[in-house]
Amino acid sequence: MHIGIVGAGLIGVATARELSRRGHRVILVDPEPLSGATHAAAGMLAPVAEVTYDQDDLYPLMATSARMYPDFLAGIEADAAYRTTETLVIAADAADREFLATLAEFQRRMDMECEVITTRAARALEPNLGTAIAGAVRIPGDHQVDPRRLGSALLAQVLQSGGEVRRTRVKAIEEENGPILRLAEGEDLRVDHVLVANGLNAAELVDLPIRAVHGDVIRMMMPAHRDHLITSTVRAMVQGRPVYLVPRADGSLVLGATSREDDLTGVSAEGVFQLLRDAHRILPSVWECEITELTARARPASGDDVPIIDRVADHISVAAGFSRHGILLAPIGAQLAADVVLGEGGNGPLAQSVRLGRFNHSPLEHSTRK
């Protein structure tokens, strides 16, 4: 089968590799591959730390995908970008400590590995943490990957297996004895099946309940006189606001991320100020770092933050709405998307949880937008 994938972010590229491995021919269509949310993402693989209340369908997807990651990365050059360093979650004040302790109890009831530790124990693990922190939770199984390196390695594999990339925009998808991609320069591209996986822009081609959640991210370089500021991923709650710091092997640090549903597509000055202020509260020496990059991207979120992976017409499928979990969910997302495209994989609980019909949509009644 010849499959056209609209969108070459991490989900599109990972699915292209999966389909290639199953013996199918793929072409990715994207004006700027790997330049969207994948480019901004910190790459925390955090099925425990990301758990929040009332998202029962999301937990099994996250846990399953995290377990798939070592095999997902096997044999690709991005292996070095995968780090099994643990995660610490820090409370800035007493209210944050109470929130984290209650959440940790909920996580343990779901058989997730986490441990409430003293602030002294947290500073023994990470000596540069601030002396005024109020509490900590240790999560040994939440790891990290560098999404930029991972995406590039996956795309290289797709090309090596005979896949193609067209650097252009898809204006519309139409069906005339099979699907046709109407490309921006006026050309038509015929394929056997289309997977729409271009993030927020998917809603321009297919009727989908997704929205933009913008996030600001700061990349920094640690000062030359320090070997490191932190070795673990450090997440924190600061007066109810989440913040994270992800250390890379090259001495860089990713600080993020705001979450805003506004009309500002560029970097928010308020967001940058908030991130730096809150990070300083947890890790005072962060102010010694050099800012090397400010990034803002829109995360495509569904109404319940669970992705939508489903057929919307006989020859058209979608994989969209991954919210802030796109990097973590890439392995399971690629598998489920390939199953949907090929009509394989059955109808188990994970497949059911990502169906469009949960929003009272009837997928096969939806026509593509023109």
UniProtKB/TrEMBL annotation:
Coiled coil location: none
InterPro entries, alphabetized: FAD-dep_OxRdtase, FAD/NAD-bd_sf, Gly_oxidase_ThiO
Gene Ontology cellular component terms for the protein in this record: cytoplasm
Keyword line: Oxidoreductase, Thiamine biosynthesis
Reactions it catalyzes: glycine + O2 + H2O = glyoxylate + H2O2 + NH4(+)
One Pfam short name: DAO
Molecular-function GO term, any one: flavin adenine dinucleotide binding
GO BP: thiamine biosynthetic process; thiamine diphosphate biosynthetic process
E.C. number: 1.4.3.19
Pathway: Cofactor biosynthesis; thiamine diphosphate biosynthesis
NADP keyword on record: no
Superkingdom of source: Bacteria
Residues annotated as domain FAD dependent oxidoreductase: 3-339
Name this polypeptide is given: glycine oxidase
Species per Swiss-Prot/TrEMBL record: Corynebacterium heidelbergense
